[in-house]
Each structure stands twice: as C-alpha cells, then as structure tokens.
Amino acid sequence: MVSLSWALVLAGVGVAASECTHPSFKAYKLSSSPLIIYLQNFLTKNERSHLKEISKPRFRRSVVASDEGAKQSRIRTSQSTDLPRDEIVKCIEQRAMEFQGFDTKESQLEPLQLVKYGPGEHYDYHTDWLADPQYTTSFNGGNRMTSFLVYVYVSNDTTGGGTGFPLVDAPRDERWCGFVECDEPFGSGVVFRPVEGNAIFWENLIPGTGRGDGRTEHAGLPVTSGEKIGMNIWTRQAGISDEVRKEGGPLDF
Ligand SMILES: *[C@@H]1O[C@H](CO)[C@@H](O)[C@H](O)[C@H]1NC(C)=O
C-alpha cells in the first residue's frame, strides 16, 4: 500500500517536471531594420532561479573568436557556461524556437549559454554573427541568424551592465524608459537596462542576403557594482550537424 502511493507520488512528480508552460510575455518592436524586438517577462521567476542554481558550479572565463580558435581576451572579461538540457532548459529552447515561427528547427539552436558579469566585467563592441568562414561552415549550420539576450539575474545593487547598441536609433516614446536608458544623449544609440526576466531579440543577418548586419554591433557594458547573469540563445541559418552538437555545439563565444 505504502509503495503503491509512493509510485503514484513519483508518477505525479514526473508529469509535473516534464510540463512546459510558457509565460505570457509581451513583445514590443524597437526597430524594423535591423529587426529588434523587446520581450517582457520572457523567463518566469522559477526558470530564473533554476538557471542560476544549475549554473553555479559551471562558470569559467569567457572566450572570444580568434584566428587560432577560442581564446581568453581583455575584450571579454565575463564568465560563461553552457547548460545541461533538462526539462526547464528544453522548455525555454521551445519558446525561443516558436517565437521565430514554425520553420525553425531544434537542430538550428546552439546550446544555451549563460554569461556572468561581476564588477568591472564587460564585453566590448562585437557582433554575434561571425565574419570568419571557419566558424560558419555547413557543419556549424552556417552563420548566426538570430540572437536572444535574456537577463536571467540582476542583483538588487547592480549599477551599469546595460547592453549598448550604438548604431540603432533610440526610440522616442517615454514608455520605453523602463527598458532603455532615456538620459543618453540623442544619437548615441540604444542602451538596454538589465531587467530580470526580460529579453532582446534581433536578426543578425541582412534579410535575403545571408550577410552580417553591421548595425547589430553591441556591447555588454561594464557592471560597476553588483552582478548580472545573461543568457544567449543563438539560432543558426540551418541545422548544426550531429557531430558538432555531440561535442557541445559549434562555439562558446
Ligand atoms: C538585496 O538582496 C540581498 C541579498 O539577496 C538582501 O539581503 C537585501 O535585503 C536586498 N535589498 C533590498 C533593498 O531589496
């Protein structure tokens, strides 16, 4: 009798754990060209604390692209990690795919990556699309078509740590001021505030050409106090080969 009820409890837990329900996030278009869409409440509180918990022991110094492959650099001083694909991580992957329409396949997603910034840490201006053809082979699924940058954790004493897009025109309506810095001088681009749970989605490539869009250049501005954890969700133009996926995905930068 006891073991039967335990079996029922365990079955119940199994069902609950594999359930993927999406929060009702809101989407606001910030720019048409390049396409940039701001997503409010893209991650739930539960998802955020889960990601923070599972990533805790995994962070190591971030790397950047170079001619000789991945290497550490003063231009990117954060800590990074990929994530084990548990049910919650797969649910977030699902959400990111569906947002891009039903033609986006799971095999196009790179493994999700978390990036942690402490005081003084930053990532200089860069694009997520890759200029070096060695990183955009068909084994790697071509180039990075889209990016989501999701704010997973922002400590309550965080200052700095915005995400700056200097080549994108700032929106004018005051309602943006919760999401972007509104006291920047006009013409200096857009600086998104780090707001926990929210995300920025953008297209990296010029539509119809496959060429990288230089206007998507952006930076993780230095955190001046506190701690910020962001998540990268990168979608390739085509499926990433199984061999590359088995090795943990094409790149960690
Ligand atoms: C900020 O977070 C810390 C650690 O979680 C907590 O102890 C503190 O009360 C919080 N402060 C405010 C103003 O919310």
From TrEMBL:
Record key words, sorted: Dioxygenase, Iron, Metal-binding, Oxidoreductase, Signal
State whether keyword Oxidoreductase applies.
yes
Q: Which interval of the chain is the signal sequence?
A: 1-18
User: Which terms in the GO cellular component ontology are assigned?
Assistant: endoplasmic reticulum
Name used for this protein in its record: 2OG-Fe(II)oxygenase superfamily protein
The portions of this protein that span the membrane are: none
- Domain (Fe2OG dioxygenase) spans 108-237
Cofactor list = L-ascorbate
Q: Which domain of life is it from?
A: Eukaryota
Entry's Gene Ontology molecular function annotations = iron ion binding; L-ascorbic acid binding; procollagen-proline 4-dioxygenase activity
